[in-house]
Every structure is written in structure tokens, then in C-alpha cells.
Amino acid sequence: MRALVVGAGIGGSTAALALSAAGWDVTVHEAHPKLAGSGPGAFLTLAPNGLLALEQVGAASVARSVGFELSTLALLDASGFEVAVRPMGEFRCLLWIELVAALHREVRQRGIPVLHDRRVESVSGREADVVVGADGLWSTLRRAIDPARPRYTGQRVFFGYTPGAVSVAGVSAAPGRFTIIRGSASVFGYTVSPSGVAYWFARVTDALGSDESPGYLLDRLRPDATPAAGLAAASGGRIRVTDAYDLPGVRRWRAGRLLLLGDAAHAAAPATGQGASMAMEDAVILAKALRDSDDVDAALALYERVRRPRVEANTEASARSTAGSAPGPGVETDIAAQLDWGRRLGG
Questions:
Q1: Low-confidence ranges of the chain (pLDDT < 70)
Q2: Which of 34, 84, 131, 261 has the most beta carbons within 10 angstroms of its beta carbon?
């Protein structure tokens, strides 16, 4: 059986590994002519459930080979008071570009072809026995089957890197510590790498297309008695900004042999930090559904039935957190059992 994966990002690369492990003949098509990225780019946190998904297909070591571990979460208020400290479990902080490059190496080492400069905008049904649309938030394949469009969440996300972070007043460089500061005009998070570089972000509520200058951000951080403004100022102006979107309400995840996966189907705002991990879960559970079902149509239906409640709850929780509301009750899911490669997928 042949599978075509469209998109070679985190979700697509993991899907290629998982489908190959399930016995499928996999090819990956990527629209970009090469692995995109100049400079460090964005960073992300990979949660324990993402690592667990990779473990099922023998690829957890790939993620552990890059970035560094996060083990403690600290919460501060705008005055700098430490409200809470608690263990996180095994998270990792990684540069997006490093994680994708590591996954690409693993995909190629397993003999799976990744073909760049191959844009797929529609599916006829003859390309493969299943086509996985892992082409991200602005998915071309999704537009062909569902009218849903990404929604601006009302927040802009600034991020940057500050070398020599320990010299900034108030910064904690404790190994594995991730600090979240609920400031008066932002949510700011940072961690200090083993090499002493602070990885930081600031989520600021404002209109789409508002000021992107470092001065705009510093004006919102300086009123608080926290290290946030110092870290941003010490980054030397190397500050990037992106708009935070989510994707609620995609009614059609599949049409014929085409199935959407990851952000193409259910992108969440960054507040829960689960985007990469949810895509990895998708990949493993899709592969199990195809492995354990009698035919492709039944497998895709099983996959959607199993995944929708969990990922839609995450999208809603992240939206509520972005808006400053409580996350809500969530959905009870035995994700460890669903991911377990040695167990059949039920649902």
C-alpha cells in the first residue's frame, strides 16, 4: 500500500516514520525547494505526549538529540512574586529548524524519499492509496475540501534569544526551569539553555498588523518588576514577531483517500504549547488505524473518531487561555493506550 505525505514539517515527517513502521510504502512531497529557515527562527516546547508518540516508532532519540530538557515550571506575577513552582515531567525546548532537520535525517535514514519543490494543490485519488495533508495552518489541500479559515486569536507573539542571560537582573538560570510571567500587558515566558542563552517569548493582545518594533514591546514589559523587559532589551534588537492564529471548526478532515493531519486540521493558539505534540499523536494514531483496519475508508473514519474529541478540546482550551478564561473541563483520553504501538486501536 502506498502513502503520499504532503508537507515535510513536524507532523508530516512523523507521519512518514509512523506509516513506514506500519508497513506502508511512503513518499513525502514538500513545497519548499529546501529545508526553510535562516537564523535560529522560532522555538517550541515538545511535551511528554509528543515524546511518547515518537517512542512508538523508535524516534524519541531524534528529539532528545536536539534542544534541552525542561523539568520545572515557575509562575510569576507582574510584581515578580513567585506564585507557584511545580514539576513538568519531561518536556524539551527545541528550535523548530533543528527538530525538523533531525526528523528529516531519520526519515531519509529509513529509506523514505523526501522530494522538495513538489507542491500538491489537489488530489485525484490516483496518487496513492492514502494522501496525508500535513501542509500546515494555511493548507492548500484543506481549502479544496472545507471552507474553514484560520482565525486571528487577538495576540501577537514576540520571541527572541538573549546570550549571557544570567547578567540580566532577576533571571533564574536554574537547569530545566521554564518561567511564565503573567505581566500587566503580556504573558512572557523564558528558559535559559545550558549554554546560557535565554529563549523567550511574549504574547501581547493587540490588533492584527499593530506595531512590531522592539520599542513597542519594551513599553509593555517595563511597567512590571520582572526580568522580562531586561531580557528583551538585552537581545540586541534581534526580536521577531508572528501573529497567533487557530483553526476551530474544520468540519471535513477527509475526502475520499485524502486526510488532513496536524495544523492543517486543528491548529491551536500557542497558549497550551501542544501543537507539535498533537501532530505527532495524529501521525502515530493514523498509522495504527491504517494498520488495524480492514480497509482505508474504515481506517480514516476510525482515526477521525478517535482524534476529534482530544484535539478539538485542546484548540478550545488554548483559545480560552488566550482570552484569559479558564481552560474548561477538557476531554478524558487514555492517550498512552491509544498511542501504544503494541495495542490495537479501538474506538
A1: 36-40, 237, 325-332, 347
A2: 261
